[in-house]
Design goal:
Largest sheet: 9 strands, mixed
Bound molecules: N-(5'-phosphopyridoxyl)-D-alanine
Structural class: alpha+beta
Order of helices and strands: EEHEEHHEEHEHEEEEHEHEEEH
Oligomer: single chain
Helix content: 25-40%
Strand content: 25-35%
Number of strands: 15
Distance between the termini: 29 Å
Length: 317
């Protein structure tokens, strides 16, 4: 026990930390897991991250998440890359240790890679090698009403970062844009925000992608709106195409959202969740719509069939 004991740290979690420039790592109790004060992620948000999850002990979409992690480093102009095979070992080991200590849960696995530890100098050539932190904790099952009634979002004045400023397709540790948006959304009575860009086009929620159904067609903001290229979003686009559900990646405004039939979010941890109110106003008839319900089912079936094809970490515990 030490002076930093903090009850907000999830007790049932496992943390692994690697060492800059080395190929080993340590799994540490969450209350003893620290980053250095000279870490660039602490000073500048100079890190990149991914949230992967497990289903029945299977790490889902690892290749897609690793590719996006790599792409975030490219967009962040990293001169040194970490050892990706080490990161994969860290992820698997942290999950296994979680399962053996706390049981077979579905896990949220957050992988953060810091550009490095250095001086307080903003110039990244003054820091050392990157290193990684992996946090695994349970994904608590979503309350039933999320799917049956839907959640409420709010519009916000805060604009999504532009490509030219901080590319939203880079999943960096600098989420202040989204932090400010969710604070404003909560103040406005929503659980999350529909963020628009500087030109007034809809982008995404603070940690999720958005879809609307308009005249029977599924619309989702195109990449040029300034969004994270969601892995769940990509699965939904594929499912629409496979099942002949008309779909368009395009630009649209908040007025299109207020007048649409259905609105929903997508993310790794939440899959698809209907959004039935915006700023207190009903979207459609304020109930999860038929397209959302059927896409949610198709997505869950797709995930379940992919999970069956892969080895489970449970067997190795
Ligand atoms: N968030 N947009 C933003 C800004 C995000 O942070 C995320 C992911 C998404 C959805 O992407 P995906 O389907 O690949 O998870 C969209 C994760 C879940 C998080 O930060 O917790």
């Amino acid at each position: 026990m030490n002076g930093f004991m903090n009850t907000h740290i999830p007790e049932k979690s496992k943390v692994a930390i690697s060492f800059p420039g080395r190929s080993d790592f340590r799994v540490v109790p969450p209350n003893e897991a620290y980053v250095r004060v000279f870490d660039r992620s602490f000073h500048f948000g100079d890190s990149v991250y991914e949230v992967v999850r497990t289903y029945d002990g299977v790490l889902f979409g690892m290749k897609e998440h690793t590719d996006r992690l790599r792409n975030s480093m490219k967009l962040g102009l990293w001169a040194h890359l970490p050892d990706f095979s080490l990161i994969e070992r860290m992820i698997k080991d942290t999950c296994r240790q979680y399962f053996s200590e706390f049981g077979r849960k579905d896990l949220y696995v957050r992988v953060t890679v810091s550009r490095g530890i250095g001086d307080t100098n903003i110039d990244p050539t003054t820091c050392g090698q990157p290193y990684a932190v992996v946090i695994a904790k349970e994904i608590p099952p979503a309350p039933d009403w999320h799917a049956t009634k839907g959640v409420e979002f709010a519009t916000v004045q805060r604009r999504r970062n532009s490509h030219e400023a901080l590319p939203p397709s880079m999943k960096s540790g600098n989420y202040l844009n989204n932090v400010l948006a969710i604070v404003e959304a909560k103040h406005n009575g929503g659980s999350d925000a529909v963020m628009v860009n500087a030109h007034g086009f809809v982008t995404e929620g603070t940690t999720n992608n958005l879809f609307i159904v308009k005249n029977g067609v599924v619309w989702t903001p195109s990449m040029d709106a300034g969004i994270l290229e969601g892995i769940t979003r990509a699965m939904i686009l594929n499912l629409c195409r496979q099942h002949k559900i008309p779909v368009e990646e395009r630009l649209f405004t908040i007025q299109d959202v207020f007048s649409c039939e259905e609105l929903f979010l997508s993310s790794t941890t939440r899959e698809i969740v209907p959004i039935t109110k915006l700023d207190g106003q009903a979207i459609g008839n304020a109930k999860p719509g038929p397209v959302t319900v059927s896409l949610r089912k198709l997505l869950r079936e797709h995930i379940a069939s992919e999970v069956k094809k892969q080895p489970s970490l449970f067997e190795m515990v």
